[in-house]
UniProtKB/TrEMBL annotation, chain A:
GO terms for cellular component: cytochrome complex; plasma membrane. It holds the Pfam family Cyt_bd_oxida_II. The lineage of its organism: Bacteria, Pseudomonadati, Pseudomonadota, Alphaproteobacteria, Hyphomicrobiales. Coiled coil: none annotated. The gene is cydB. This is Cytochrome d ubiquinol oxidase subunit II. It comes from Microvirga makkahensis.
UniProtKB/TrEMBL annotation, chain B:
Its main location: membrane. Belongs to the cytochrome ubiquinol oxidase subunit 1 family. GO terms for cellular component: cytochrome complex; plasma membrane. Keywords: Cell membrane, Electron transport, Heme, Iron, Membrane, Metal-binding, Transmembrane, Transmembrane helix, Transport. It is a multi-pass membrane protein. This is Cytochrome ubiquinol oxidase subunit I. It comes from Microvirga makkahensis. The keyword Flavoprotein does not apply. It is found in: Cell inner membrane; Cell membrane. Signal peptide: none annotated. Residues 444-453 have a biased composition (Basic and acidic residues). GO terms for biological process: aerobic electron transport chain. The chain crosses the membrane at residues 12-34, 55-76, 96-119, 126-146, 183-207, 228-248, 325-349, 361-381, 401-428.
Length: 349, 478
């Protein structure tokens, strides 16, 4: 496909391609669903009252656990079918991944602890904010490091502990904070009412501008990484197929801005998701078919055919079911969160 | 002991997994316990069960949250710290771990939200269904992760190609020899852990009141104490039998581990049951040994003159460290028999009709609160240290499984984990203690018109914050 993987035939060719698609979907799911609840955490510190924070937290409390499960699927899925990629990437990303996990611990326990505390509540407000902020930042660094590529011998990582750290990965870290902030703000627009909603709209506009700026900086920077990614975009006939991606992105951003000003409730959130998916698509175009850039393809890192098939059977049966009951859980908690959520508003508390 | 990346990674993995296992061990049992309580509430309409559910679901929520966040760490550590293990086992264990995620974690997570926050929105039956799905999710999760763990102990259904394990027979790989009994042993261990935690915490709540305090204050704790002790009295003996059968499997498939458990240096028949000894790995013998003749052979082989393998049959470099395995096993078994004692004692007191009045017994039960956690942890130490020096028994040495990471990076992450887990665990225990101090709502708080009726808004009465600030009426968000 596109000149890659030609040495593989039949299932050995198709299975990694199918799996790459499935894991790409899982990662996209993660970025969207945990993106908005991490985004809610990023906005948390700026919220003006205890009541606002209660409502913001309540809007994600019933679903955050499921959202984070996609992260386990991302890691688990990589181990499940591209175990060589998992084995190279994880040691290479040791520092940002461990720090991300630590941040997620603080943020995750904040959900439970915050509502069981009174005097120590400030502690968990901070845990939720800094946990969300830092988890996002380190995820962004992982992304940046991924685009830069990893030193390896085809089976194991051969580089150093801090190879991931560069001006580029710092910028992608900050960029992701803006992006998740946008998702979180548009989520709050959708899920809240009154002054909180008006405030969320203003935050959404700010984070949109910052997000677009970050996307522009990263896009312009990529050619200077020396990975020849730009030749893929600007060579003929690719440019004809790929030119719409930035153009549609620009239109979606414009539409999102107008929607926020016009007072729409639902569409900004879905347009923000659209913006993310476009950025994600752009990334996919830049990196395919390497899942350990710069040199290992999805075929090089895949499990044996037997192993991929076994996992695929389970996925084919279980994933539709998973989507169904996940959708049901969202449906149960549909609608705007009430303004008077006192005492935490947790029905069970 | 050199503190290189290997040793630091081992300490880090042992610490993070030991911390993690505490919470699933508790929530696997609690989820089923909650399902039983809710079933009784729906069946009888007795508000006692509802109050108990409302109380224990809070304990569950704290424990489950800690289990989730410490569990995510595990799914990444296979790669960050054990990338050569991932490379060797990925073809086999990768799909098994992925099955756990897709069949269990999503199920738990989606229905957990409904279980905790959704009663008003979905109605009784669907809510009960959600509780059952959470409980089922915990059991499915245990199924896959124990399958993977068992495969590392008794690998099967694979071949080695190009220095990696590749699957040959999935059924054999998933249902590898030690898996069925390990699964039974672990799940029952989790249930018993929960039973003793529930019984112990209930005993503590009863001890805080004089036994002639108003019935309304005591009824809920008495009911949960009684239910938990019935479970313990019946299933601790079953667990001891399963443990014994599991031991027969260790003898068959992991003779060196068994020899370490028994502190047995020479192959022998008529082996004594060693109650105590100080194993000496340098001199290859035991000091201060106290044992009962022949019984060791009988326990292991069910024949007095049964042959038991010895550590000296394999070279030193293939033996596990003996004393941690030897003592961990004895602590686990000791705790098991202490639990058996509590179970029998409870039956005797029931027969005499003084189960709730005997304060010595209640104090003993309270002291047994952490016994299940201890038994689970020491059982794991026995199993996992006994597997050394291999990470995949007989095929991959732990020393060959570690990632190419710098020792400094691992030392730093280990230090961070120690501090963060101590902090989080400390606060978790603090909030749990606060919850327990308040206990389940007394029955008299329930308005009379609720009794025997279909619950309209069973979860809408909010609690106070556990630090004592009064709560307010919660409003369902529509």
């Amino acid at each position: 496909m596109f000149g890659f993987g030609n040495e593989y035939e039949g299932l050995a060719f198709w299975l990694p391609l199918i799996w790459a698609g499935l894991i790409a979907v899982a990662v996209a799911m993660y970025v969207i669903v945990d993106g908005f609840d991490l985004g809610v955490g990023i906005l948390f510190k700026a919220a003006r009252s205890e009541n606002w924070r209660d409502r913001m937290m309540f809007s994600v409390a019933p679903i955050w656990d499921g959202n984070e499960t996609w992260l386990i699927l991302g890691g688990g899925g990589l181990f499940a079918v591209f175990h060589v990629a998992y084995a190279v990437l994880m040691p290479a990303l040791y520092v940002p991944i461990i720090l991300m996990l630590i941040a997620l611990i603080f943020r995750g326990v904040a959900f439970e602890f915050r509502f069981k505390s009174d005097r120590s509540k400030f502690l968990w407000d901070n845990a939720f904010f800094f946990g969300s902020l830092l988890a996002t930042f380190f995820q962004g660094m992982v992304l940046g490091a991924f685009v830069q590529g990893f030193a390896n011998d085809g089976r194991q990582f051969t580089g150093g502990t801090f190879d991931f750290l560069s001006p580029f990965s710092v910028v992608t870290g900050i960029g992701l904070i803006f992006g998740y902030g946008l998702l979180g703000a548009t989520w709050c627009v959708m899920k809240t009412t009154g002054e909180l909603e008006i405030w969320a709209r203003r935050m959404a506009v700010r984070f949109l501008i910052l997000t677009i700026a970050a996307m522009a900086v990263v896009s312009l920077w990529v050619p200077f990484l020396g990975r020849q990614i730009e030749t893929r975009w600007f060579s003929w006939p690719n440019i004809a197929f790929l030119a719409p991606i930035p153009l549609i992105t620009a239109y979606v951003a414009y539409r999102l801005l107008r929607d926020l000003e016009e007072g729409r409730h639902y569409r900004p959130f879905f347009l923000a998701i659209g913006l993310f998916l476009l950025g994600y698509l752009g990334l996919g175009v830049s990196l395919f078919p390497f899942n350990v850039p710069p040199n290992l393809t999805i075929w090089d890192t895949a499990n044996t055919v037997d192993s991929q098939l076994f996992a695929l059977v389970g996925f084919a049966i279980v994933m539709p079911l998973t989507f169904a009951y996940t959708a049901y859980a969202y449906y149960v908690f549909r609608g705007k969160v009430a303004e008077e959520i006192q005492g935490g508003g947790y029905g069970y508390h | 002991m050199e503190l290189d990346a290997l040793m630091l990674s081992r300490i880090q993995f042992a610490f993070t997994v030991a911390f993690h296992i505490i919470f699933p061990a508790f929530t696997i049992g609690l989820a089923s316990w909650l399902a039983a309580l809710e079933f009784n509430w729906l069946r009888t309409g007795n508000p006692l069960y509802r109050n108990l559910f409302r109380f224990w679901v809070k304990v569950f929520a704290v424990s489950f949250g800690l289990g989730v966040v410490s569990g995510i760490v595990m799914s990444y550590q296979f790669g960050t710290n054990w990338s050569r293990f991932s490379e060797f086992t990925g073809n086999v264990l990768g799909p098994i771990i992925a099955y756990e995620v897709v069949t269990a974690f999503f199920l738990e997570a989606a229905f957990l939200g409904i279980m905790l926050f959704g009663w008003e929105r979905v109605g009784d039956r669907l809510h009960f269904f959600a509780t059952c799905m959470v409980a089922l999710g915990t059991l499915i999760s245990a199924f896959w992760i124990l399958s993977a763990n068992s495969w590392m102990q008794t690998p099967d259904g694979f071949a080695i190609e190009n220095g990696k394990a590749v699957p040959v027979d999935w059924f054999k790989a998933v249902f590898n020899p030690s898996f069925p009994l390990r699964y039974a042993h672990m799940v029952l261990g989790c249930y018993i852990t929960t039973a003793f935690a529930v019984a112990g915490m209930s005993a503590w709540m009863l001890l805080r009141h004089p036994h002639d305090a108003p019935e309304a204050k005591l009824a809920a704790s008495r009911r949960s104490l009684s239910m938990a002790l019935w479970f313990a009295a019946i299933f601790v003996p079953v667990q001891i039998v399963i443990g014994d059968l599991h031991g027969l499997g260790v003898l068959k498939y992991q003779p060196t581990k068994l020899a370490a458990i028994e502190g047995n240096w020479e192959r022998m028949s008529n082996m004594p049951l060693r109650l105590f000894a100080i194993p000496d790995e340098v001199a290859e013998t035991n000091h201060y040994e106290i044992g009962i003749p022949k019984i060791g052979s009988w326990v292991l082989t069910h024949a007095f003159d049964g042959e038991v393998p010895g550590l000296k049959e394999v070279p030193r470099e293939d033996r596990p460290p003996v004393w941690p395995v030897f003592f961990s096993f004895r602590i686990m078994v000791g705790l098991g028999f202490a639990m058996l004692g509590i179970g029998l004692w409870s039956l005797y007191l029931r027969w005499k009709g003084t189960l709730f009045a005997n304060r010595t017994f209640l104090t003993a039960t309270m002291l047994m609160t952490p016994s299940g956690f201890g038994a689970v942890l020491f059982g794991w130490f026995t199993a996992e240290i006994g597997r050394q020096p291999f990470v995949v028994y007989g095929h991959l040495r732990t020393a060959d499984a570690v990632s190419p990471v710098a020792a400094g990076a691992v030392a730093t992450s280990l230090a961070i984990f120690l501090v963060v887990y101590a902090f989080v665990f400390g606060f978790g225990s603090y909030y749990l203690a606060k919850l327990l101090r308040r206990g389940p709502d007394p029955i008299e708080d329930i308005r009379g018109d609720d009794l025997g009726k279909k619950p309209k808004r069973p979860f809408s009465v909010p609690d106070e914050g556990v630090e004592g600030k009064p709560g307010h009426q919660a409003q369902p968000a529509e």
